[in-house]
Design goal:
The chain is built from 2 helices and 4 strands; from the N terminus they run βαβββα. It is of the alpha+beta class. It has a single domain, classed as 2-Layer Sandwich (Double Stranded RNA Binding Domain), CATH 3.30.160.100. A 4-stranded mixed beta sheet has the order 1-2-3-4, with helices on one face. A hairpin with a 2-residue loop joins strand 3 and strand 4. It is globular.
């Protein structure tokens, strides 16, 4: 990704490997939309006092012309988001789907329903 990318860690020790993984996944977004102006990834552990593992939350904010797309992945029913890499992967997958939908609407490739 040639555009500004910011990775923020909240209540989590900054990890160079997790930061690199976020940058790698953000770099792939250019395949789905060439109009991305900004991307901000926030990786957060909401609290540290639970009995079981911490469920990581990932929020991604992407700015495209005339629109901001935000994805937040937190507290799934299954415990898979105890791994920050899985939470990051799931958030980028959801963002990819939203970017694809945005591009379809922008390019008028969405079927119009007759009334």
């Amino acid at each position: 990704m040639r555009l500004p990318l910011r990775v923020t860690f909240r209540n989590v020790d900054p990890s160079p490997a997790l930061n690199a993984r976020a940058r790698e996944l953000a770099g792939r977004l250019d395949r789905f939309s060439s109009q991305i102006m900004r991307c901000h990834v926030t990786i957060e552990a909401p609290h540290r006092h639970s009995r079981q593992g911490t469920l990581y939350q990932v929020r991604i904010d992407v700015t495209v012309p005339r629109r901001e797309i935000a994805v937040r992945r937190a507290h799934p029913i299954d415990r898979s988001h105890e791994d920050p890499y899985v939470a990051l992967r799931d958030a980028f997958r959801a963002l990819r789907r939203r970017l694809q939908d945005h591009e379809r609407r922008r390019q008028w490739k969405v079927k119009a329903h007759s009334r």
